[in-house]
TrEMBL record:
<feature type="domain" description="Adenylate kinase active site lid">
    <location>
        <begin position="128"/>
        <end position="163"/>
    </location>
</feature>
<feature type="binding site">
    <location>
        <position position="37"/>
    </location>
    <ligand>
        <name>AMP</name>
    </ligand>
</feature>
<keyword id="KW-0862">Zinc</keyword>
<feature type="binding site">
    <location>
        <position position="93"/>
    </location>
    <ligand>
        <name>AMP</name>
    </ligand>
</feature>
<feature type="binding site">
    <location>
        <position position="161"/>
    </location>
    <ligand>
        <name>AMP</name>
    </ligand>
</feature>
<feature type="binding site">
    <location>
        <position position="32"/>
    </location>
    <ligand>
        <name>AMP</name>
    </ligand>
</feature>
<keyword id="KW-0963">Cytoplasm</keyword>
<dbReference type="InterPro" id="IPR007862">
    <property type="entry name" value="Adenylate_kinase_lid-dom"/>
</dbReference>
<dbReference type="InterPro" id="IPR033690">
    <property type="entry name" value="Adenylat_kinase_CS"/>
</dbReference>
<comment type="subunit">
    <text>Monomer.</text>
</comment>
<keyword id="KW-0418">Kinase</keyword>
<dbReference type="GO" id="GO:0005737">
    <property type="term" value="C:cytoplasm"/>
</dbReference>
<dbReference type="InterPro" id="IPR000850">
    <property type="entry name" value="Adenylat/UMP-CMP_kin"/>
</dbReference>
<feature type="binding site">
    <location>
        <position position="151"/>
    </location>
    <ligand>
        <name>Zn(2+)</name>
    </ligand>
</feature>
<feature type="binding site">
    <location>
        <position position="128"/>
    </location>
    <ligand>
        <name>ATP</name>
    </ligand>
</feature>
<dbReference type="Pfam" id="PF00406">
    <property type="entry name" value="ADK"/>
</dbReference>
<feature type="binding site">
    <location>
        <position position="172"/>
    </location>
    <ligand>
        <name>AMP</name>
    </ligand>
</feature>
Amino acid sequence: MLRAVLLGPPGAGKGTQAVRLVEKYEIPHISTGDIFRKNIKEGTELGKKAQEYMNAGALVPDELVVDLVKDRLQQDDCKNGFLLDGFPRTIFQAEKLDEFLSESNLKMDIVINLKVEKEALIKRLTGRRVCKDCGASYHIVNIPPKKEGVCDICGGELIQRKDDNIETVENRINVYEEQTAPLIGYYKEAGSLVDFDGEASLDEVFDAIVQAIGEQE
């Protein structure tokens, strides 16, 4: 049983920790992107509304995002908890989530905040390389290919994605910090936020999170 929110800037290692947490606690990993895609694909009323905004190149309004998430949290696989990733993004969304949990006589167990210095994030993100043929991922420092610029699997050329260049990476980090700083304050005040050193090894971060979850119970 675990109800948790996962916060952290791009490149902090959220994806890796999410996979391990949902496996350990047998809960669904819920991201707003997945919810949008599922509702749009199934042609639900909420999905149709979201599609209209996306087609117009507009951000999906907070109220609609909240409705989509609430709908998802009421499904059977969330009875034993969930791990929210990419939601909430704003104070409004966080307040609405708290209201929903309170009405259901539930509470958030922990808000996991992965902290990584900006310089380390830039190094991580700009070092990513992808095979343009088979899509395999590498990192020039952490997971280098056997031969520079060449995919180990298919021999294809390794490229840097456009969103991994330094200007885009810095912008993504700045946007995250601006959006999320108030949210971190909100959860800190509520007493549910726990900071973790995202620059430690993956195993160390995971063990620290599991220990913190045990202490919250």
